[in-house]
Specification:
Blueprint lengths: L3 H15 L3 H10 L11 H40 L5 H8 L4 H5 L8 H8 L9 H10 L4 H7 L1 E2 L17 H34 L6 H13 L7 H7 L5 H12 L5 H6 L6 E2 L4 E2 L11 E3 L4 H14 L4 H12 L6 H4 L11 H13 L9 E2 L11
Parallel strand pairs: 1-5
Antiparallel strand pairs: 2-4, 3-4
Helix pairs in contact: 6-14, 9-12, 9-14, 12-17
């Protein structure tokens, strides 16, 4: 006697392997002595087929889902062990810590080390004529009117001021020309600080840091002269200088780019030095030993100026006022912040009045929210 169960198992395998129709099954069963049709196919066979299908589905699902579960478990352990974030309150407490005594101190040794690298680079700077620079601005559609309207600045980096700038008789034209030259450089330096500041906050928001991050932090402690590796001091010092204030001070110190210091040494801010190379002021006393710092390129002068304001004890109140604006979620206002520049020049309060006048008369605050068109992918996030 034919074993029906064995036969139906054979039918099931045959059916799955060859994907045959119900009519072909009926024909096969008749040949084996069964009277099979849609109505009298044994319900037991259907159950076998169902169980086989369900078992296959379960097995396939297990093999498919298991790697996903294992990967999820692995990533969860990785996150909890190495990338566990501290609570937001802990971060706020750290960043809002104010230690004015710590901010008064600075380590001079490495302050301008990165700035000196500009002098170590090959000196292939070419002093372009005013006419050539003006043609460059026109060919790239770079104008201050367009910047004021669209808040976008062309990434034109000039290394030297043209000697003919002092020959431009029209005062407004000379001022605009000077602003066009240094504005991209000023924003470029602020972008440099902004990217560093973004990285700093990312590091501070972690409970553990990689070796690369530790090396980076140590480098920034040196650049900003931070004593005892105090993070709150680094946070206060590593910040931008409003473009309007920077331009106003450069205009005041160089006579809108016409001074001997600016022409001979790319010195836009009249910073003094008592060692190293510099330009001796003609009006200095015979016993005076100070010189005006000189640079190979304009970019180095702007970075040195920012580093000076961000580290020197004379500008501690400037940094505190800037940090307070940050804490209150306000923009960096140049009129407010320049009130703390009384120690920048011997004229004190009168110097501040002049800076305010330059900012207001030339509408320089229009450039505070201007963005530099990106010259690399890493800078696109700042637009």
């Amino acid at each position: 006697m034919i074993d029906k169960r064995a036969t139906f198992l054979k039918i099931n395998k045959y059916f799955k392997r060859n994907k045959i129709s119900i009519f072909e099954i009926q024909k096969y069963l008749k040949e084996k002595g069964f009277n099979a049709n849609k109505k009298n196919i044994d319900s037991n066979s259907i159950n076998i087929l169902s169980r086989t299908f369900l078992s296959s589905l379960i097995i396939i699902s297990i093999f498919f889902i298991s790697p996903i579960i294992l990967e999820f478990k692995k990533s969860s352990l990785l996150f909890s062990n190495d990338f566990e974030n501290k609570s937001k309150n802990d971060l706020v407490k750290l960043l809002e810590k104010k230690d004015n005594k710590s901010d008064e101190l600075r380590n001079h040794k490495f302050l301008f080390e990165d700035i000196l690298t500009f002098d170590e680079e090959p000196n292939d700077s070419v002093r372009l004529s005013a006419a050539t620079i003006e043609e460059l601005f026109k060919s790239t559609n770079y104008s201050l009117d367009d910047v004021r309207k669209n808040k976008l600045v062309k990434p034109i980096s000039l290394t030297l001021l043209p000697s003919e700038i002092k020959k431009i008789i029209n005062t407004k034209k000379r001022k605009d020309f000077f602003i066009q030259i240094i504005l991209p450089l000023v924003i470029k330096e602020n972008n440099h600080i902004r990217l560093d500041r973004k990285k700093l906050f990312s590091i501070l928001n972690k409970s553990k840091n990689t070796r690369v991050e530790q090396v980076w932090l140590n480098l920034k402690f040196k650049e900003y002269g931070v004593v005892n590796k105090d993070l709150s001091t680094l946070k206060i010092r590593m910040d931008e200088i409003p473009a309007s204030m920077t331009i106003a001070q450069a205009a005041k110190e160089t006579g809108w780019g016409t001074s001997r210091f600016a022409q001979e040494g790319n010195a836009l801010f009249g910073q003094w030095t008592w060692d190293g190379e510099g330009i001796k002021p003609s009006e200095a006393d015979n016993g005076s030993t100070h010189k005006v710092m000189k640079f190979k390129v304009l970019q180095a002068s702007i970075r040195a100026y920012q580093r000076n304001l961000n580290t020197h004890p004379s500008y501690e109140n400037f940094r505190i006022a800037r940090a307070e604006l940050r804490d209150e979620g306000k923009k960096l206002d140049s009129i407010t912040l320049s009130r703390y520049l009384d120690k920048y020049a011997e004229t004190g309060k009168e110097y501040i009045k002049v800076i305010h006048q330059i900012i207001k008369q030339n509408n320089l605050t229009d450039f505070d929210d201007a963005k530099l068109l990106p010259s690399s992918i890493s800078l696109e996030s700042l637009i």
